[in-house]
Amino acid sequence: MDSFFEKVVSEILGIHNLSDLERMCFVVPSRRSAYFLKKALSKHADLPIISPFIFSIDDFITEHTDLLIADNIQLIFELYTCYLEEEPETEFNNFLNWAPTVLKDFDLIDQYMVGDTDLLFAFMSEADAIKRWQPEVESEIIISENVQNHFDFHRKTGRVYELFKKKLALKGIAYKGMCYKLMAENLETFLNTSLSYKHYYFVGLNALSISESQIIEELVFRKKATCYWDYDSFFMDSNHQAGEILRQYQSKDKFGRWNTPENILVNDAKEIEFYSCSNDSMQSKVVYEILLQAPQNTLIVVPEESMVRKLLFSLPVKFQTYNVSMGLGLNNSKLFSFYQLIMEIYQKGYQLKGKEISYHFSFLKNLLSEPVVAQIFSKALDKKMSAAQISESLIADNKVYLDLDRILEVFHFHPLIELIFQKNIPSVDEICNILIKIHQLIYINHFDDLDPLEKEYWLLLKEVLFQLSDTVESKDYITITGLVLLLKEISKLQKVPFAGDPEAGLQLMSMLETRCLDFDHIIFLSFNEGIIPSSNRNNSLIPFDAALHFNLPVYKDQDDIMSYHFYRLMMRAKHVSILYRQNSSGLGGKAEKSRFALQLEHDLAIRNPKIVIRKSEVGFRKTESPNNKEIKIRKTDEIFDKIVQILCNRGLSNTSINTYLNCTLKFYFEQILQLESENEIAESIQADVFGIWIHKTLENIGKNWIKQNKTINCTTLSESMQILDSEIDKVKKELFADLDFNSGLNKIYYLMAKELLSKYFKTRIENSDTGFNLVGLEERLEAIHSIKVQNSIYDIKIKGFIDSIEYNENGLSLIDYKTGKALASDLTFSKLSLQDAILLPKMDKLRQLVFYSYLATEKLIVELKLPHNTPVNARIYAFRNLEENLALAKFSKEEIKQSVENLLNEISLGLLDKLESFNQTSDKKVCQNCSYNIICNRLD
After folding, report:
1. How far apart are CA 395 and CA 624, in angstroms?
2. What residues contact 630, with CB distance under 8 A and at least 6 apart?
3. pLDDT tier at 620, thresholds 50, 70, 90
4. Where are the alpha helices (DSSP H) in 14-111?
């Protein structure tokens, strides 16, 4: 089947001789389509000819105006100077947040020939006022200074719009829309100076702006232009969304004679395959399989730029020659990510104490995780320290902020680190120079180590860094934050162009770049609702109602355009592969395939019986893997020896007993292998550390009581409340010297510590009918329990730390503090004996108090020289619910002794049984917060 361009060229050459073409002008949607139009012309020319003038629509407009298109960065600074004239207090950092949006709106206003711009900006201001109107509120609406400034913004923007255009025109530069409007308004002048064109052909255009329409309509009216539309009767002879815009043009009857529409969507045979994929990686694998059978004239439509890199690593050998026409954004570069992090260090990654500078640990850690840095250090420090070892060394310091000397020392004074970390925070100009020096250092020492794509990024970044340096020079109003924002803005605009073959058998394009191009086989990726068509709406200050009133494009127009591009591309394709993600996507539920796919299946395929549709759900084949198998650790002689060492030397604690009862495999990881969690330095305290803070504060107050040999009563407790804040601060300084408690989560924890400890002392005062003496703090208690196993006697060591031990006429009180929640139900049981109850994994709090009571009975009463029959009481103070009575019920000493010794027998016999393996728990709730759940893979 002939392509659209081949049909157009054939028809035109039926009217004109080849020699006439040199005096004609062809205008097409894009530069890529201009190339293929030339190719179509060359196929019809038997002899060499002089080519006609062929422009993309953008090039056509800018070529025939006297103004040069300025880049966006230059436009941003010109716009800023205009805003300063209207509002001298405008801060550059704030300005950068909305300047790109204002530039887009100005471009739109001009392209769509808005006549009364004053009315438009007034409309925008009044629309904001209506948003704030509350007719149900009877009181007078007070307009604050901020609200008034917001209303004034639109009026000032209207004045800036006029001033901005005048300034640009004086400098001979413009933004794109300005050129469009200038040409539309001065078409007569243009025609008088462009008489060399015998005729204009506008080929394959769609979704014209008003300025484009006026230019083309006037040329058609003067019989100097002809339009060729690429369309099909399927979507033109109905109310189909894909033909909406073209039907509007046709009804205006201002574009001359329309070429006959194709009738191929409902008549030609097509194979359409749908592939449901679980993720992006799966899409890449499916593309590889499809391409193995694909013809040379194949297109991959890539709506998400982030997928290009994955695809390039998934191409079969037969398509090693390919062309990527979309370009990859600078923000996909590892180098760019590295430079961004450096600027963030200067922006917020340091603190000053006097003249001394120190840098935040998290930024150092992030720096080490940057692929570029890791690659550099793997080469430079291989005989000294790896990036991972450096990270561990910094963690060992246990400081949130590290001074410069320590940083340079641990990095072995590497020149890259000496460039990044300065004695003083550099100025904006100096930062640009530092980045340029780092860029040169990478080129001299590490350029060959970069992958081919990163080398292209390096070249592009070189231009960007010099542009950035020239741009910020002598502009005092640019701060480090402004520089970061500016670099981000540049990164959105700059792309790495691929120098490929436009005629390669495989093309990778975005949907917009496919205009006027035809392919035998098309592969659509990420064909999901919200991507094709996109749910992203262009940011604009212009409200919807204003856009409608002034004939500016709205959301629906965006969808209409995408629908046209899709169905136009489908017209001449013989084989179409549509891949979409079918996976959970958070709050939105499952990712759904695009409505366009549903339209193909339930509309077009019904009208065209020659369309064959196949569906495939692609996923990984489920196989039994080690991760899915139950983990069992059998006891070797080496493991058995370690068990004996634990039982007889290291000893069993209440915590290790809890671990064993909950999950014997966790006991193996924790006690036998002694695996530890990855060390981290946190800048906000965590729940476990908060508990240490509470315990330490109470310990310090208790030590003062013991030192003064005081009997603790209501008076003593009240006196301690008076010094409570200072004691909390003392422990805070001791434990968290580097942390900031002025804001955020740390401040919440600080206020919580004060509130909980104050409430604790009030509770103790209310319940202190009799005084008591404090006889122990963080007391370590140990005992030995002997057990016989297969003719061998093992002396099992048991141990425990009791937070506080009090003594009065009622006996010995064992106190445990908990910052977590505890309930009275945690200590109660029914239909069971105490002996059976403490064997239940969930009865950990009961078990703890019984365990402590046993240790106190066995050792503490003797050590304190108390009467043998002294009552032993145990209780918990839970700071989250201090009102709860968490005292252990009265049990006889013999009952406690039998229960604990039975518990120890059960655990010891299980551990010393060589045939009993360490197994995963059957209760997966236990796995939720386990440090080893990644190893077990129990949560998948």
Report:
1. 39
2. 919, 920
3. low
4. 31-43, 57-63, 72-86, 92-111
Helical (H) or strand (E) element with 133: none
Place of tokens 């800018």: 62
Q: Cα-flanking dihedrals φ and ψ of residue 298, to 5°?
A: -120, 140
CA distances from 72 to 103, 209, 520, 623 (A): 8, 21, 38, 53
**SS3 at position 412:** coil
Residue type present at position 581: R
Is beta strand 495-496 parallel, antiparallel or unpaired with respect to 652-653? unpaired
Q: For CA atoms 554, 517, 321, 494, give the dihedral sign.
A: negative
Q: Are strands 270-277 and 611-618 parallel, antiparallel or unpaired?
A: parallel
Asked if residues 875 and 849 have their Cβ atoms less than 8 Å apart, the reply is: yes
- The mean pLDDT value for 581-599 works out to 72
Measured distance CA(380)–CA(389) in Å, rounded: 14
849, 878 contact by CB (below 8 A): no
Note whether 710 and 806 are within 8 A (CB).
Answer: no
The residue ranking higher by pLDDT, 374 or 685, is 374
- Nearest CA to 897 out of 856, 842, 846, 839 is that of 856
Residue 850 has pLDDT above 70, yes or no: yes
Mean pLDDT of 206-213: 95
Q: What is the mean pLDDT of residues 774-801?
A: 88
Residue 590, class by beta-carbon neighbours within 10 Å (0-12 exposed, 13-18 middle, 19+ buried)? exposed
Strand order in the sheet with 350-353: 350-353, 356-360, 401-403
CB 90 within 8 A of CB 153: no
Q: Report residue 786 as tokens.
A: 């002997």
- Of the candidates 770, 818, 769, which has an alpha carbon nearest to the alpha carbon of residue 827? 818
Please indicate whether residue 555 or residue 273 has the higher confidence score (pLDDT).
Answer: 273
Q: Which tokens is 725 given? A: 């804040």
Number of H helices, E strands in the chain: 39, 25
For residue 551, the Cα-to-chain-centroid distance in whole angstroms is 37
Binned at pLDDT 50, 70 and 90, residue 589 comes out as very low
Q: Report whether pLDDT(388) > 90.
A: no
Most confident listed range (12-21, 330-339, 518-527, 667-676): 518-527
User: Which of residues 361 and 301 earns the better pLDDT score?
Assistant: 301
Contact 226, 199 (CB under 8 A): yes
Instruction: Please state the rounded mean pLDDT for residues 879-893.
Output: 88
Residue 821 CB-density burial (10 A; 0-12 exposed, 13-18 middle, 19+ buried): exposed
Outline where 767-806 has alpha helix (H). Answer: none
pLDDT at 587 over 50: no
